[in-house]
Amino acid sequence: MKRQISFGQALATVVGTVIGGGVFFKIGSISYETGTPSLTLFVWILAGIVSIASGLTVSEIAAALPVTGGSIKYIEYTYGKVWGFLFGWAQMLVYFPANIAALSVIFGQQFVVLFNLPAKYATLIGLLLAIFLMGLNFISTKFSTRMQSVMTILKAIPIALIVLFGLFNSSKVDINLFPLSAGHNTSFWTGLSGGLLAALFAYDGWINVTNLAGEIEKPEKNLSRAIIIGLSAITLIYVLVNYAFLTAIPFKEIIGNQNTAYLASLKLFGSLGGKLVTIGILISVYGAINGFMLTGMRIPYTLAQNKMLPFSDKISRTNVNTGVPTLSALIILFVSLIMIILGTFDLLTNMLVFVMWTFTTLISIAVVILRYREPKLERSYVVPWYPIVPIISIGGGLFIVISTVINEFWLSITGIGLTLLGLPIYYYMKKQNNRQQ
After folding, report:
1. How many CB atoms lie within 10 A of CB 395?
2. Which end of the chain is more exposed for a tag (fewer CB within 10 A), N or C?
3. 210 pLDDT exceeds 80?
């Protein structure tokens, strides 16, 4: 693949992929878990700190190993081929389809609310949106990245309006940011862990730009810059947007309410303005889905290039004219459509966060392992304040994984089970490849 993605386009992919549905639709789930405005806002800040620490840490290995396949290759390089395959398998079967499905589901739900359509059409709208966007991605990689840049600019409009009107809202709802505590009948650590799991979906997606490392211009420099600058800006945006929500409508109306963004927009901008801002929010979700499709379609392609999937010779092909891995993209789309039909927004997002952070934590640990195993590996970027930043990244990741197993046992078992389904495929393909050789 050609190195045709600039720093600006890589940054747009980070911001455009991360800022999607989470910042607008997760506050209902977070508030339900935490029970107080203070812990709700703190969770957003903490999730940002953990994500930035992980971004700073993973960028070291991303700069040292700028290869197509990104995070899969980092796992494989450090832990062996079977672990790299399982990560790719989990991304192909769970992570990317669940992201695309969850965002399509919430898009359909908000679309029918905005335009007063029967709720039964929400799923159909989600399905049509996923098919339409994947069709656009078939045009070419350059077209998709340019569209991502445009979507990133457009999604900045509702965010800027919400922040500005929220900060200068003359009829703010009073909220107490201190003391930091959970709601009634909820322990602090239970509220914190549940809220953090929900919030991390909103920060999810930054690592996916590493899948484009083989196509980014000067990846040893531009890849880490895109991740770090993007995540820092996103954290600030999220805190300001959610502060606007918390001060726009009473907290009791936010708890468990996925329509919080719509209600807050009506409160801040009036009926017409609120609907226009909500349309902008849907554009934001649209851009996020496109970002996950753009990066996700590379996963089956990368596995097939290594001859680790059945029919690898076909899946590893790219379109002669556009350079798009067509069959790989169709695999991601097919699984996404099934999840749209079967899943719910919170179920899909919690499962993908658990699976992704399991492997993201392994990548952070890999940075420490390679420091000892390969001290002479050329590192054009090194994580600052080592080992403090990696400790924050690894500690935050372990907290997420362990608390999910404790608090949402069956969800975690499902995610682990779907990941381990890849083992028979791996050993079958390994046997086939050895036989051919």
Report:
1. 14
2. C
3. no
